[in-house]
Amino acid sequence: MSNKLQDLSEKLQTILASQIQTIVVDCNEITIEVASENLVSVATTLRDHDDLAFEQLIDLCGVDYIAYGKTEWSTDGASATGFSRGVEPADTGRLRFGDELNAGNNDIPRFASVIHLISYRHNHRLRLRSFAKDNQFPLLPSVIDVWNSANWYEREAFDLYGIVYENHPDLRRILTDYGFVGHPFRKDFPLIGNVEMRYDPEQQRVIYEPVSIEPRVLVPRVIREDNRYLHAQNEQNKEGATDA
Amino acid sequence: MPEIHNYTLNFGPQHPAAHGVLRLVLEMDGEVIQRADPHIGLLHRATEKLAESKPYNQSIGYMDRLDYVSMMCNEHGYVMAIENLLGIEVPERAQYIRVMFDEITRILNHLMWIGTHGLDVGAMTIFLYAFREREDLMDMYEAVSGARMHATYYRPGGVNRDLPNVMPKYKESKWHSKKEVNGLNKNREGSLLDFIEDFTSRFPTYVDEYETLLTDNRIWKQRTVDIGIVSPERAKQLGFTGAMLRGSGIEWDLRKKQPYETYNKLDFDIPVGTNGDCYDRYLVRVEEMRQSNRIIKQCVEWLKTNPGPVILEDHKFAPPRREEMKADMESLIHHFKLFTEGFCLPVGESYAAVEHPKGEFGVYLVSDGANKPYRLKVRAPGFAHLSAMHEMTVGHMLSDVVAVIGTQDIVFGEIDR
Fold this sequence. Notes:
The complex is a heterodimer. Chain A is α/β, with parallel strands linked by helices. In chain A, a hairpin with a 4-residue loop joins strand 8 and strand 9.
């Protein structure tokens, strides 16, 4: 960890103290997680405190964690079932019209809003994550009053994930079609979509119908523990141990 | 006299000055804009969701199609995010090649911008001049990747292949006589690097030509000076990056402030505006073209004298050479695995940002350890710029909307994603 990151993470811990739930430093980047009720006050501190001075919101995006770590193809050992593996609708690419995502655990918070900040004065960056408490009606406070550029980004996250931002002045859909139903970037929204559109010469207008294409996944989703990273991690852990 | 009310004007999505498929709902009081509401998404292709369903390397081509006038810079952001997570260092020659092509791309983008911006506000000639040079730059793309626009040239760990030793040449046909062809092929006799070097020696005069056409042009100044002024404070609040931020007087360039690849070894300057109007942003971008030319020159010089590998030799994510594959079992297995399943990234998340011609292009990658991204978010600079449309145009005349669209350098491939 470089000195600058170390410095920033210490500053964050002293200034924000108990408002931070977790703080992670990885890949030369700092991520902090805050509870949704603290989000606006944390955001204001991040912007106004002289040592932090995050003047600009670079990016805000929604993430749907429902299928995190789920795979279609087990790599722990060989199986006797061969080619039948990797065809269960566990992945958004395989879902058809009306299919449910077999994701199981619905108790953990599912939707998060991830904010990337930059400070021009100190030349550092920060990632700020906040989970919505309710999975059925994900609600988060809007940070539009702190950083005005959040406006369209929050509209986008609302459009694609259905995260509702409280106190947003103009929460309309932004990227999808007029009259679109559903939130397309959710993991339980099929990759092929639900409806397709064509011109019907008999009715002389454009009509919507259920999609006629078949879902097709060429490469199943797998997670492999690559020995090189395990090795690198062990080395790091060892170094950390000797440092301490 | 009848009372005149505000009325609503629908600008686009089919309008030559809308730069693609922008639908702008304007509330007008006579000729004056009261409210501008851009409707975007007409080019939405769900690139991010598509990328989530494919192994990492298969999405590089999608990145070209985001901002389709600065292709390689998009790829750069994407492969850098992957490299961050893998924790790998790219060979130096590959870094120089990437920097060189980033700058070629920057000129390519700025030429497109100056041409269309000029055309939008009534300067026809500049468009023809700009497209003359774009032809040479696209030939460089073609020589290195086989495609004039959507190159898919960058790879995690380096670039696809080394620079070619020969330039493709024009051939004689019933439209081009032998004499003509010889003239066209004069600077194509050597390698690609020779061709690029020749271009960098010619390019400053071309920029002078553009400046002769525009910089002191009375009509150009009337249409751009004091139009769409953004203060430095507002520029930060509105999420501006790149030339839009520098035009407002903020000295910020990722190539200098958070250098990636070999930018810290190269000598170049960052132009900054003072007034934050369309004219200042024009001056900034023109100077950026000159600086890019300087960078390319330095890269060519380095690349000519320093041969070496252009992609890492680690076959877990870079394919082995064809010859090796035919003789060596291990290489064959690596090749097979890489092109069927792809490679897995370690668990984690990373945000990689590059100084794209339009601003900060960022790629936020969340990996759960699989061979496909769990979440990929593309931070397109134009998205934030367009969201400031209302603030930049309110109180201006209808014709200034066109100037503001031009100065924002809008391309819908990246905004709609």
